[in-house]
């Protein structure tokens, strides 16, 4: 069985948020005081998450990315991962983390066969890191990065580019790829910051590419992976590569193969969609696996063509921007 939306796009990738909590307070994601965190009962249980993931794999999903909040803050997260790796049909489990609680779990992650880690890192400068995250924790993230590389994980660094904040970090982050086999992905800032500040459109994907090319004229575009959200480049002689993700200008929507599930079980067929079917509630109401599959198929019928179409629906409901921690990073 293979999931398809009404545009014929095959859906084989689920982003699962396991928690809303985070131990950083990044300015582009949430207010300084954090959010009103969900109670344990509001979150899906490990059993509910495993059931939903099994349903999705039976429907053709072969890759699941674990997000948050910060996934490693969830109690029982590693046992959950252990069970998740045993699902039939699941070929790829990836994790997006801020790196603060990851280090102690690296060996177990390796033993479970997890190979892909996305590490959020918006600055290599201690003061700017603190300015962005409101926490003085850069050294922990760098230690995690080094150990992930040492243990041969496929590491992607996610950097949100913010005008007047961290654009000076672009070149140092590019230089990381010279001697480290990492992919540094520069991401356009998105409006999911709980309404705490306006975003600048100056540093869009095209501007970021031009800025990098001005210092690295040998920047060479490489072939994108299937359904990739990034435009990928490398610099001759460098071990790693560079990606540019047009998260706000959204030039990759046409090949979208993703669904996302929030930590409360709400199925979003697009990042810019405001509401979705709550699969947690369907499970707690006693619906069978087959009935839940039918609800998922119904949701896919309404998957928008792209993020712009979804955003029109979003604003028509007169809702303020949510935090990325609530949506699932």
Would you give an account of this structure?
It is a single chain. Helix 1 runs parallel beside helix 2. The protein has a single domain, classed as Aldolase class I (TIM Barrel), CATH 3.20.20. Strand 10 (230-234) and strand 11 (241-245) form a beta hairpin. The strands form two sheets. It has a twelve-stranded mixed β-sheet with strand order 9-10-11-8-7-6-5-4-3-12-13-14. A two-stranded antiparallel ribbon has the order 1-2. Residues 316-320 have low confidence and may be disordered. The protein is built from eleven helices and 14 strands. With 329 residues, it is an alpha/beta fold. It has helices at residues 46-58, 77-84, 106-111, 126-133, 138-150, 170-179, 205-215, 279-284, 289-301, 307-316, 324-327; strands at residues 3-4, 10-11, 13-17, 63-67, 92-97, 116-120, 154-161, 182-188, 220-221, 230-234, 241-245, 258-261, 266-268, 277-278. The longest helix is centred in the N-terminal third of the chain and has 13 residues, at 46-58.
């Amino acid at each position: 069985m293979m999931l398809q939306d009404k545009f014929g796009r095959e859906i084989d990738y689920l982003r699962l948020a396991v928690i809303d909590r985070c131990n950083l307070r990044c300015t582009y994601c949430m207010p300084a005081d954090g959010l009103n965190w969900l109670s344990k009962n509001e979150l899906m249980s490990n059993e509910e998450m495993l059931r939903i993931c099994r349903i999705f794999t039976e429907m053709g999903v072969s890759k699941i990315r674990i997000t948050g909040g910060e996934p490693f803050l969830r109690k029982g997260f590693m046992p959950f991962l252990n069970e998740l790796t045993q699902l039939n049909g699941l070929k790829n489990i990836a994790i997006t983390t801020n790196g603060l609680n990851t280090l102690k779990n690296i060996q177990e992650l390796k033993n479970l066969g997890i190979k892909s880690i996305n590490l959020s890192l918006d600055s290599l400068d201690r003061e700017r890191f603190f300015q962005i995250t409101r926490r003085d924790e850069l050294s922990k993230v760098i230690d995690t990065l080094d150990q992930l590389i040492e243990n041969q994980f496929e590491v992607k660094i996610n950097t949100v580019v913010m005008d007047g904040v961290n654009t000076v970090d672009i070149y140092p982050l590019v230089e990381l790829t010279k001697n480290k086999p990492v992919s540094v992905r520069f991401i356009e800032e998105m409006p999911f910051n709980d309404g705490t500040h306006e975003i600048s459109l100056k540093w869009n994907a095209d501007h970021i590419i031009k800025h990098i090319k001005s210092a690295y004229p040998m920047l060479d575009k490489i072939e994108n992976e299937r359904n990739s959200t990034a435009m990928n480049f490398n610099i001759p002689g460098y071990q790693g590569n560079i990606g540019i993700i047009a998260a706000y200008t959204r030039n990759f929507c046409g090949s979208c193969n993703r669904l996302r599930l929030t930590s409360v079980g709400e199925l979003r067929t697009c990042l810019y969609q405001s509401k979705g079917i709550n699969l947690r509630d369907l499970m707690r109401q006693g619906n069978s696996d087959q009935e839940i599959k039918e609800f998922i198929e119904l949701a896919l019928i309404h998957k928008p063509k792209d993020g712009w179409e979804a955003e029109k629906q979003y604003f028509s409901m007169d809702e303020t921007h949510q935090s990325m921690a609530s949506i699932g990073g």
